[in-house]
TrEMBL record:
Cofactor names: Mn(2+)
Protein's name according to its UniProt entry: Beta-1,4-glucuronyltransferase 1
Pathways per UniProt: Protein modification; protein glycosylation
Organism name: Sitophilus oryzae (Rice weevil)
Presence of keyword Repeat: no
Family to which the UniProt record says this protein belongs: Belongs to the glycosyltransferase 49 family.
Keyword terms: Glycoprotein, Glycosyltransferase, Golgi apparatus, Manganese, Membrane, Metal-binding, Signal-anchor, Transferase, Transmembrane, Transmembrane helix
Record's GO cellular component terms: Golgi membrane
Molecular functions per Gene Ontology: glucuronosyltransferase activity; metal ion binding
Chief location bin: Golgi
Phylogenetic lineage: Eukaryota, Metazoa, Ecdysozoa, Arthropoda, Hexapoda
Top-rank taxon, per record: Eukaryota
Membrane topology designation: Single-pass type II membrane protein
Gene: LOC115886809
Membrane-crossing residue ranges in chain numbering: 21-42
């Protein structure tokens, strides 16, 4: 009996041990499985190899999704552009409708009014069309860009207004009634199609007194139909229509009054500083904003002129975004100092070699160097307070127009400082053979006028720093 109970007791103990062993094995296997799972997930060993086909499939799927996303981005971008263009056209249409309500298109021009020049040869009209934000821009910017032009080159305003953020004063000239009508039509076309011109530019007009028309006409229906996507094509068509042969013949007798129109543009700037250029001299990007900062730091007594280097650009290149790219173009023969081949003394005293070698620490404007080798016939484009001497209006047409004014500044005691890294550019590498013969004729006529001019300058300042009065 006792042996039987002993046997049963041992059997129970055996079962208990077997149960404990089974539980232990189960726990071990569970933990081991967890360990293997974690290892497969994070291991970088050769256990990755079986997963590569799966990963490749996943990667291809991700690539496909990315392509679809990029495609969607492109579609979205194009849609935004389409909506934006539609909005711009709607704004243009609304603006044109607004013009229709005002029959004269906000044109402040009465040909019976205006004012005369000092010799009663021309009639001048100020502020015939004022930019919608011109007044606000004049308060926000220290420098006004002033330019003069006739119908031939006025399209350059499109590029200048793109890069120049401040106010722009543009004096225009028309020789005949027909040219006046086409000029006004194109100005209104530019304002219709270009928001920056519509906002920034203040237009003025000069005409010959004894050829001044009694009326002008704006073809409203034609203005409506002119497409905005080809401003140069529109201009070329208008120029052909203006009968260029007769106009050029007229300019032999009464040349384009550059200095008169320059003074008109200058005196209709309303800020402290004026940057006077020709309309086809294009300023570098953000110049007006940088000048605000620079001019705040200057303590000049008023007789300072800040020279902006001017280059000619090969027409096959894009406008350089900065000084570094401009120098790179110059090293490749795609850019060079303005008038370098046509008349080197025009800009020579600026010393472009020194300007190019000046190391700009950042994009802020600084004085690169002072002009120390001033010489006669130097005519830089410069920024100055508009107390500088006016441009002498006896010089008509080409030759001795800008350099005579700069010469008087020099005699009056002005100093010239070259700025960096800003610059201006003129499209086209110029050569002498491309100049029309009437320009040389005008230059010879103005050379004769200069003899009287230099005597007057000597009498006015009692100085002759360049020995212009010395006997030859």
């Amino acid at each position: 009996m006792e042996s039987e109970e002993f046997l049963k007791s041992n059997i129970k103990k055996g079962k208990w041990r077997l149960w404990n062993i089974s539980i232990s094995i189960l726990v071990f296997l569970t933990l081991y499985n967890i360990f293997l799972t974690v290892k497969l997930m994070f291991s970088t060993s050769c256990t990755d190899a079986p997963l590569k086909p799966v990963l490749n499939i996943i990667q291809k799927d991700l690539d496909c999704q990315n392509k679809n996303l990029h495609r969607q981005d492109d579609i979205l971008k194009k849609e935004k552009e389409r909506v934006l263009n539609k909005t711009l056209h709607q704004n243009t249409d609304d603006y044109l409708k607004e013009f229709h309500i005002n029959h004269k298109y906000s044109l402040n021009l009465d040909l019976d009014l205006g004012r005369s020049d000092n010799k009663l040869m021309y009639r001048l009209y100020d502020n015939i069309i004022v930019g919608e934000k011109y007044t606000q821009l004049t308060k926000a910017y220290k420098t006004c860009l002033a330019a003069q032009t006739s119908l031939e080159k006025i399209a350059s305003l499109i590029e200048s207004s793109l890069y120049w953020g401040g106010p722009i004063s543009v004096a225009t000239f028309a020789a005949t009634e027909k040219e006046l009508n086409l000029l006004l039509l194109y100005i209104l076309y530019l304002r219709k199609c270009n928001l920056k011109i519509r906002e920034k530019v203040n237009f003025h007009l000069a005409m010959i007194e004894d050829k001044r028309p009694k009326k002008f006409f704006i073809d409203e229906e034609r203005l409506q139909k002119l497409e905005c996507d080809n401003p140069m094509g529109v201009l070329n068509h208008l120029l052909r229509e203006s009968n260029k042969i007769r106009v050029n013949h007229w300019r032999y007798k009464l040349p384009y009054p550059q200095n008169l129109v320059r003074n008109l543009a200058r005196k209709n700037c309303h800020g402290k500083y004026v940057f006077l250029t020709d309309v086809d001299i294009i300023p570098s990007r953000d110049m007006a904003e940088k000048l605000n900062q620079f001019l705040d730091t200057q303590k000049c007594d008023g007789k300072c002129a800040y020279v902006v280097p001017t280059y000619e650009l090969d027409e096959r290149v894009l406008f350089p975004p900065n000084k570094t790219d401009l120098i790179r173009m110059a090293n490749k023969g795609l850019a060079r100092p303005f008038h370098h081949k046509v008349f080197i003394y025009n800009q020579y005293a600026t010393n472009f070699t020194r300007w190019q070698s000046y190391k700009d620490p950042d994009e802020k404007i600084r004085i690169s160097h002072r002009v120390t080798n001033f010489e006669f016939l130097y005519e830089p484009f410069y920024i100055a307070i508009d107390t500088v001497p006016p441009h002498d209006e006896r010089f008509v047409g080409y030759g001795y127009t800008r350099n005579s004014q700069v010469y008087e500044m020099y005699v009056a005691g002005y100093e010239f400082f070259v700025l960096s890294p800003i610059f201006t550019c003129h499209w086209g590498l110029q050569v002498k053979r491309t100049r029309p013969p009437w320009r040389e004729h005008q230059n010879n006529q103005n050379r004769k006028q200069f003899d009287s001019f230099k005597k007057e300058i000597f009498a006015r300042y009692n100085k002759d720093p360049l020995h212009m009065m010395s006997p030859k």
